[in-house]
């Protein structure tokens, strides 16, 4: 018996537009041959905007002592206990 969550190839070809509407709504569709899953239609991920250098300028402040690490903390990184 075929898996009820699998759309057969004939049905997929016949109703491709409807299946694409379901995928656009966020659903994943599995296409099968002889009841066995062979492919999956999934929503295409939204393209990311390219990174823009300086986008956080003025929103982040790095303090002057950022690169200074207290000796106690450095010792902890080395596995030394006080």
Summarize the entry for a quick read:
The chain is built from 3 helices and 3 strands. The protein is α+β, with helices and mostly antiparallel strands and 82 residues long.
What does this structure look like?
- The protein has helices at 9-14, 16-24, 71-77; strands at 6-8, 29-33, 36-41.
- It has 82 residues and is an alpha+beta fold.
- It has a domain at 6-41.
- It has a three-stranded mixed beta sheet.
- A hairpin with a 2-residue loop joins strand 2 and strand 3.
- It starts with 5 loop residues before the first strand and ends in a 5-residue tail after the last helix.
Low-confidence stretches: none
Mean pLDDT: 89
* Number of β-strand runs: 3
Whole-Å distance between the termini? 68 Å
User: What would you report as the Rg, rounded to the nearest angstrom?
Assistant: 27 Å
The coarse overall form would be elongated
Assign the structural class, choosing from mainly alpha, mainly beta, alpha/beta, alpha+beta, or little secondary structure.
Answer: alpha+beta
Helix content: 25-40%
Order of helices and strands: EHHEEH
Number of DSSP helical runs: 3
**How much of the residues is beta strand, in percent?**
15-25%
Q: Give, in spatial order, the strands making up the sheet with the most strands.
A: 1-2-3
Tell me about the biggest sheet?
3 strands, mixed
